[in-house]
Write a sequence for this structure.
């Protein structure tokens, strides 16, 4: 895996978890929870997360973070099961991301990172030159990468897309890329998942307290 891509993923996991690690359940109603952190002086911080179990197996997470909708859960009807469906899933990079893309669409769940795109393309080229040295696509891409070293790598996704298509690369090259170069999961999905994970912890703590009592 692209090292920068993995580092970004792990960094966002840590930052999102930290953002909600002290949050409490401030209020609740059927299928709805409001999470917020209480300061030492008793006032609530401004970073609030609202979680709502929507109709048809959807799960909304919003508030003071960019909203995300996860879809679809059908195993059990109760809202807490739906919260745990996402909040207790640790596969953020695949399963959680997939359910966010279904609920929200890739235009909001995926963003472009030029540094990661550059490493994605360099990684593909390195592998291709080991197996297909002299192949038309590797020659074309090598020339393109060498040009970027002098002119600078494209900063915008549309600039990169045009450069790749205009270079004469075959359709086989684009078929080798499982995702577009530089495409990464948006921070909103990490933060929404972290809020759900925190709510799961709080609900589990309430259950243990009731059992002990």
């Amino acid at each position: 895996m692209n090292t920068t891509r993995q580092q970004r993923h792990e960094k966002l996991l840590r930052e999102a978890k930290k953002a909600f690690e002290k949050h409490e359940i401030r209020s609740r109603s059927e299928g709805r929870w409001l999470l917020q952190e209480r300061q030492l002086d008793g006032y609530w911080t401004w970073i609030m997360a609202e979680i709502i179990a929507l109709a048809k197996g959807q799960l909304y997470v919003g508030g003071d973070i960019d909203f995300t909708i996860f879809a679809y859960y059908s195993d059990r009807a109760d809202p807490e099961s739906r919260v745990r469906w996402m909040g207790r899933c640790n596969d953020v990079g695949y399963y959680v991301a997939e359910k966010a893309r279904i609920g929200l669409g890739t235009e909001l769940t995926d963003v472009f990172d030029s540094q990661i795109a550059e490493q994605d393309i360099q990684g593909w080229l390195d592998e291709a030159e080991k197996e297909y040295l002299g192949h038309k696509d590797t020659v074309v891409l090598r020339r393109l990468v060498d040009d970027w070293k002098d002119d600078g790598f494209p900063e915008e996704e549309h600039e990169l897309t045009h450069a790749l298509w205009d270079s004469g690369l075959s359709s086989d090259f684009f078929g080798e890329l499982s995702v577009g170069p530089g495409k990464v999961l948006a921070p909103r999905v990490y933060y929404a998942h972290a809020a759900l994970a925190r709510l799961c912890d709080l609900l589990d703590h309430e259950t243990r307290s009731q059992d002990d009592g």
Q: What stands out?
A: The longest strand covers residues 23-29. The mean pLDDT is 90. The two ends are 48 Å apart (CA to CA).
